[in-house]
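From the shared-data thread, chain only:
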Amino acid sequence: MKIVPLLHEDEKAFLALAAEERWICGRWEFDFLLRHFPQGCLAASMDGTPVAFITSIKYGKSGWIGNLVVRRDLRGKGIGSTLMKKVLETLVDAGARTLWLTASEAGKSIYERFGFSTVDMVKRWYGMGTSGGRAESEDFSLTDILEIDRAGWGDLREAILKEVMERGTVNFFHGGFLIGQPADEGVQLGPWGADILGTAGKLLDGARIIVGSDTRVFLDAPVRNVNASMLLHSRGFTIEGSALLMFLGERPAYDPTRIYALATMGSMG
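Structure, as tokens:
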């Protein structure tokens, strides 16, 4: 087995394994990761064939690990652990002091052996857009979005925010923003940050109007934001999955009360 850089020509194999895991992971994420942190995107190769993958990205002093997947017939042989060790080293060498990932309950013990601790749980919510009314939004700048996001995550995540702003629709009110991103199975809501529940509610209602009544919407929200759960329940959203939010290293300045939805469905924060 060889550990080699993840390349653009590996995209089909990578997305195939991701689909087997029922991950919501699009081609745009693959391309974004290879552009912004290629040294942290690796494959395990056997006889020239990629059989496992891991991706990562660095924001400021933070790193996010995602998409660790091993071909099912080769699991339990240490391939995933080898990839994880290499990516941890790469992120630390790049200056990351806090490392993040999401994990299933089944995978919790694996990551705990690397030193990761659970800081929250993320619930996956599904709902529908709405019809009628008019979506309102205020003028904003990139700096406005970055500061609201940093209030929740404790770091400056400019690369991912600029990317999703360019590919999605931004709603903004003073103290909050919500970006709706196109996806194969509907529209992903997130990233979504707000300082108070009233602002979060206005953002959600506007985003659902933009989406329209025949479109499914989904998002990942932290459980420790109880206002997010109350709001989503009140708008008819239902939960269809969960994951643990874990970190390693320096404890982050994490404030889940400001975070209503992640920027990606688990892979990049």
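The domain at 2-96 is CATH 3.40.630.30 (Aminopeptidase).
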